[in-house]
Design brief:
By secondary structure, the chain is an alpha/beta fold. It folds into three domains: 200 residues, 3-Layer(aba) Sandwich (Rossmann fold), CATH 3.40.50; 87 residues, 3-Layer(aba) Sandwich (Rossmann fold); 135 residues, 3-Layer(aba) Sandwich (Rossmann fold). Helices cover 44% and strands 14% of the residues. It has a six-stranded parallel β-sheet, with helices on both faces. A six-stranded parallel β-sheet has the order 11-10-9-12-13-14. It has a two-stranded parallel sheet with strand order 7-8. Helix 16 links the parallel strand 12 and strand 13. The radius of gyration is 24 Å and the shape is elongated. It starts with a strand and ends with a strand. 44% of the residues are buried. The mean pLDDT is 95.
Amino acid sequence: MNIAIVGTGYVGLVSGACFSQMGNSVTCVDVDKNKIEKLKQGIIPIYERELELVVKNNLEAGRLNFTTRLTDCLNKEDLIFTAVGTPPDEDGSADLSYVLEVAREIGQNMEHYLVVVTKSTVPVGTAEKIRQIILEEQRKRGVQIDFDVASNPEFLKEGTAVKDFLSPDRVIVGVDNDRSKELLSRLYHPFLLNNFRVIFTDIPSAEMIKYAANSMLATRISFMNDIANLCELVGADVNMVRKGIGADSRIGSKFLYPGCGYGGSCFPKDVKALIHTADENGYQMRVLQAVEEVNKYQKTVAFNKLDRYYKGQLDGKTIAIWGLAFKAETDDMREATSLVTIDLLFKAGCRIRVFDPQAMDECRRRLGTAVYYAEDIYDAAKNADAVMVLTEWMQFRMPDWDALKKIMTRPVVIDGRNLYLSEDMKSMGIDYFSIGR
């Protein structure tokens, strides 16, 4: 099939590469000329396992192409996917200007039947807005060309996005007629030969499913963080609590890991957008409002532990931060706990040394020379008054603590991801603080 993907951000690039991997002819479109030129050379702008290899292989095979103009490919395509950004406005609503601009360009230039599929995360009702804009642009041209709209939200996890796309646990597709349903069934059939789990819904339900899914996962995280904070106060161990409730088949064990707050491009934005959608319809999402408040507080927990340890006397202290990305296996720092922590440390008068296996360039882009960029975890910990672990990278899990104790000013560890065993740290003479234990 011939497919165009508009937007080469995280979702668009992964989608385009993986659709081409299955034998489709895919053209990815983006207005950023510099990004497109690099992508044509196989240079990708994000870190995601396996993505660079998939992009290069399909570029070489001629199945994956990049351009800055949608009109270069519009009238040879069967499907147009919009995967442009929908950043949050100040009120928390999703900014649809990029999505609607793509619809406008399609209406101005289309010449044959197309299915316009929204992959961007958008609020309920967006597909209908897209339909009306395309119709209006056709009326201006004096033409009447058949087209359909559909909703196909993505559920990719950063760090395993290629695997998630090529072997999805389910695919959600919102359609309103058999013609578009048949076309999208053919597109996804190769991905699900052994387990064809395409769930077809009406379009508004598909738009809602994405927000509801991310909000549920965010709720589980905030719930466990709330439980973890209470565990510390009453002397319980949140790891034992997590295992106990996760063994209940009605609950399950996923997304029950406490920590120092969730971040990234999806959960914070989607929770805010769903709250805003409810507000627009005269309803309050009280649970999600609490989820947001818990997460906002949780991002300060690691700093608060350090501040209490030093009795508010942090001015002049050197603090090492291990982990800048919002989660392991990505370089994404959007809404990352590290940014909140660094800001609080700056305000307290600290000197900051940072290390992350992938997010150092992104940190430089955001913070410039405000922090020291270490070569590794040991360089970060030199003369440090504490190490703060904020991302659960594998290479942080078994450091040489004897070596670290020799180079640190004081052996203090604030573990925001519960990577280490309390009894081990205590036996090594390390002042250790984790979440919910």
